[in-house]
Amino acid sequence: MFLSSPFLQLSSSLKPHPSPFLHGSSLSIPFLPNASPFFLFPAAPPPPPSLLSVKAMKKMQGRVVCATNDKTVAVEVVRLAPHPKYKRRIRKKKKYQAHDPLNQFKVGDFVELDKSRPISKTKTFVAVPVTARNAPKPIDPVPGDLLGLPLESQQQE
């Protein structure tokens, strides 16, 4: 009964497809001792090294918000991102743990975060000192000899 079904007779009369890649069969490659299939199809050579280095991540700057741990500071990075609905730029804050090997940073310092290898579970950045944009600039005294005139404080009566 099962052998006489028209479906079984039709499937037995089908010819196999001529492609060697169909149904998981591999190429008929002559056997070479100690050779892998990758040996037969060599990959493209690597590009020559260039002098330009590509950095995938921008350096982030932020303010130290916690410096109580040993050799670790918590840095809060503020960025501007558009609101999803209203498209107005809003401030987004995120805290990162950064490595501070000399314990030189205090709360309120501005630092730059450089990407590094993972130092611990949460630390993948190294804190680098940077001057704040709104920090007061040092005042250089103007020498009186520059203008050729004596200053009022240097005049004698």
From TrEMBL:
- GO molecular function list: rRNA binding; structural constituent of ribosome
Write down what this protein is called. Small ribosomal subunit protein uS17c
Spell out the CDD domains in the cross-references: Ribosomal_uS17
Q: What keywords are annotated for this sequence in UniProt?
A: Chloroplast, Plastid, Ribonucleoprotein, Ribosomal protein, RNA-binding, rRNA-binding, Transit peptide
The reply on keyword Chloroplast is: yes
Kindly indicate whether the keyword RNA-binding belongs to this entry.
Answer: yes
Main localization is plastid
Bias-annotated ranges (Low complexity) = 142-151
Where are the stretches annotated Disordered? 136-157
Domain of life the protein comes from: Eukaryota
Q: What is the organism of origin for this protein?
A: Elaeis guineensis var. tenera (Oil palm)
